[in-house]
Every structure is written in structure tokens, then in C-alpha cells.
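Running co-folding for adenosine monophosphate.
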Amino acid sequence: MLGLMQNQPLLISSLIDFAEHHHGDTEIVSRRVEGDIHRYTYREVAQRSRQVANALAGMKLAFGDRVATLAWNGYRHLELYFGVSGSGLVLHTINPRLHPEQIAWIANHAEDQVLCFDMSFLPIIQAVHSKCTTVKHWIALCDADKLPKDSGIPGLQSYEAWIGKASDVFNWPEFDENTASSMCYTSGTTGNPKAALYSHRSTILHAYAAALPDVMCLSARDSVLPVVPMFHVNAWGIPYSAALTGCKLVFPGPALDGKSIYELLESERVTYAAGVPTIWQMLLGHMKPAGLRFSTLKRTVIGGSACPPAMITAFNDEYGVEVLHAWGMTEMSPLGTLCTLKNKHLSLPAEEQMKIRLKQGRAIFGVDMKIVDHDGKRLPHDGKAYGDLLVRGPWILREYFKGEGGDPLVKDNNGLGWFPTGDVATIDPDGYMQITDRSKDVIKSGGEWISSIDVENIAVAHPAIAMAACIGVRHPKWDERPIVVVVKKPGAEVSREELLQFYEGKTAKWQIPDDVVFVDAIPLGATGKMLKTKLREVLQDYKLPNT
Ligand code: AMP
């Protein structure tokens, strides 16, 4: 017997409808590529998203065609989020930090029909447009008078002229909630990038989950600044959860330096911000020397790579801002776990609470996870056993776009498919998961595993160290030994011996790195994460001392 409740498909268009009707006067503030601040409301987002839908309808695209963006976090990008997906087309957000050749490869692989880009990326488009063989329409996200006359890009239109001609009356179509809504290519550190193809259903379920109190805890009282880019995993789903809760959105545009972010946090009375650790490093680096304080920021979600304990402590103890450590991946829409305390932890001493906060957190309802050994045998959730982390759930990838890479899932004894995250982790009896490492970054020394994250966390706790990356180097006896590659804070000094001394008593002796390599910068990937593959290439001639 089926239930007798109404069966409305979960569609992204309903989010912006809801925001328009219930939070119509809530502000969306954007720092534009032009440098000025733009502000309007959900009511106008909804109207202009419908204009986008009408303008797209005029292009005679087929249901499910891909419309690409190469854009910063901003209001026009938000309108495309709703206008494109709401029409039954697929929003393909491209990471502009990728190499132009890779951008062209991705656009061709996705078979993008339309490409909308911020003017900061005009040079990239000029370089690659002739290679993007499927793109028929080029839209520059700017006013008509900002459009360059001789761009060399055939048929280039300004976004404002394009949607300006379109009506803001549009009835969002109703279709199967499993229809594809947006796509994002993985960083692709090895081989060609592969795309995760999200659906309306997966996006709405993720948006509900992300807003929960023990996840991002978003509400109509929040002013939210996503530093996480809208070109990578939909800014962790914040634009959708924002429309669902009616929180104010503050978009930083291209200005991601500490000073610009700090100014926006203060001027827009931001209560909640989200980003990868490298961004917060820059923010704290700007605030500390100038003795600046936050007047409204209460919580910040940090994820994408391991958040160093020193950063959690700095936010918490020095600025009174709660850090929520989060873990996820492109293939997971992206949220998998978030770290918040349980009631029983509230009476624990601060240092005990800190041990919990350092973990990547508890699974969100909808995400099932387990750790397994090399034979696929389930490992206990005792906080000690570590193994490959597998996940399943309604917003987790089943297969890559176009079936690239074959069937990625690992089947269990009941025939259920689990997605292998490529991370190595422990899970404690309370369900808190802690990433030990990426499976390819873990250092195998004399049959034991050393967590590169642990080694890095100790280095960045040293007052002179700004950034640290630990990699394994071949060793004749131990197979591999860890070294730590560090960037010093401007004007700070520390010697190799002092830093190695700093490890004493903080970790087992055999886990202390064998050497310290000082560098000016650590290569970062397109999503702001340390690129250890590149670092290994740079250090390929490096030899351990005394070997
Ligand atoms: P991406 O799909 O590019 O967002 O990368 C996902 C990967 O980033 C995960 O599989 C992890 O290896 C890593 N990652 C994300 N969040 C965290 C975190 N909080 N701590 C450690 N690693 C993380």
C-alpha cells in the first residue's frame, strides 16, 4: 500500500520560488568584478532567474543540454544556478584556475552549448574559444557597455543585454526529480578529470541536510559569506541551502585576499563563513598584525583539507569564533561529515573538547560510512583502527558522467555499492570520523603508516611556520621516510634543528620527519589545496641526509 501524500518532485526551481515568496526582501550582496558592491534581494534573484530561463529558451537548447559558467561568487552566477537548472538544463561550473587547455578539454567533454564567463576570464576565453567546438553561445557576465568591441569571440553577448530582452514571467517546468541539474569535474590530479553529475533530488536533499543545526546550522537570522567557490562543488551547496532558509548571502567576487574578506565580513555583519584552510590563513595573517577583531562572525566552516589545530585554536581562543571542521568531496555534493559536539561533551575540559573538534566529524543523516581493511573487511569503530573510507547515500555519486573510469563502486556482501573515497580514516564509538590521510599520501615507513596530516599539524603549530606539507621520500631501510616542506611566516625565523626539536614529545619518535626543507611557496591546486604531486616533482632530486 502506498502512502497518500502529495508527490511533488524535488526541484531546484522550488528553492528560488520559496525564497522569493517568504524572504523576498532579504539581501544578496556581491563584490563585483568591476570592484563595486552590488546589492539586491531574493525577489530580484527570482525575477532575473526567470529572465535567464526565458533567454535560454530563446536559444532552442535541448532538455539536459549543458550551460557552463566560468565565474566568481556573485549575483549573476546565482541567477544562473536557478535559471539554468530550473529550466531542465545542466549548469556546468568550470574551475577557472585550471589550465586553459584543461578548460577546453572539459568544455568539450561536457559538450557545453553555452558558456557564461566573468570579464576577469576574458583572456582565457580568447585563448580557448576556438578549441571549444560545442559552444554555440558566449555570454560575458557584464553590462552591455562593458562588452569589448573587438573580443575576437564570435557572437559574444553581454549578460545584461541577453537577459534584458527577456520577460521575467516564466513557469518553471515540472519534471522527474532525478533529472541532472549541475555538474562539476574533479580536480583530476591523475589522468583526465571526471565529472560528478548532480540531480535535482540529490541537490535538494543535500540542501536540507546542510542547513541542519549539527551541520551548517543556517537560518533566516544569518548573514553568510561563502568563500568556497561557486565553481567548485556548488560552493558546498550554500546557495541552495541559503534559498531554503532565507539567509542573507554575501559574495566576495574575485577579491579573496585577507583585507577584502575582512572588510566584507565586517560591513555586511556576516555571522557565518565557509572556506578552505588556506583562505583563513590569509585572513588571520591580515588581522593579527593589525590587531583587528570580528564584531559579528560567530561560526566558520573549514574543510576541503585538514584544518590545522593551530587554526581552530586561533579562531576559538583569540577571536571567539567557533570552527566547524567539515569533510566531503566533489563526488559527495560535497558534504559527508561535520564536527559538532554532543551534549555529553559540553562538560569536558577545553583540551578534551579540542581533541574532538580536530576530527572531521560525524556523518550527516543520509551519509552511511564505514572503514575497511585491504580485503574489504569492515573495521571496528574504536577510534584506533584505520582503513579505507567508503560511503553511500542519496547525494553520493553512483557513476561518473559518460561512465568514465567504469563502475567506481565497491560491492558489499549484500550487493550494496559503496563509493571508495580514497581517504584513510578512523571512526570512534561516538561516530566521529578522523581522516588519517589521502591513501596516496600516507607514508609507509618500516611497515607502519605515518599520517602526513599529523606531521603537518605539528609544523604549523610552530609560531614561525605559515604552511607545511609532509611527503614520503624513498629510504633504503624503511622503504619511505617523512620529510616536512615548510614556508616560514614573513619575517619569522626557525632553523631545521629547532623545528625538528619542536616535534619532540608531540609524536612518537619514529614519526618525526627526517628532514625539513624550506621553500618560498607550496604549490596549490585549482581548489586551493596543497598539490603534493607537484611538490614531489619539484623535489624529485632531493635525497635524505645520511642515506
Ligand atoms: P575535492 O573533491 O577536490 O573537494 O577533494 C576531496 C578530498 O579532499 C577528500 O577526499 C579529502 O581527501 C580531502 N578533504 C576534504 N575535506 C577534508 C578535511 N576536513 N580534512 C582532510 N581532508 C579533507
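Result summary
The mean pLDDT is 94.
The pocket of adenosine monophosphate is lined by residues 186-187, 233, 303-306, 325-327, 329-330, 334, 360, 421-423, 435, 438, 527 (CB under 6 Å).
Job closed.
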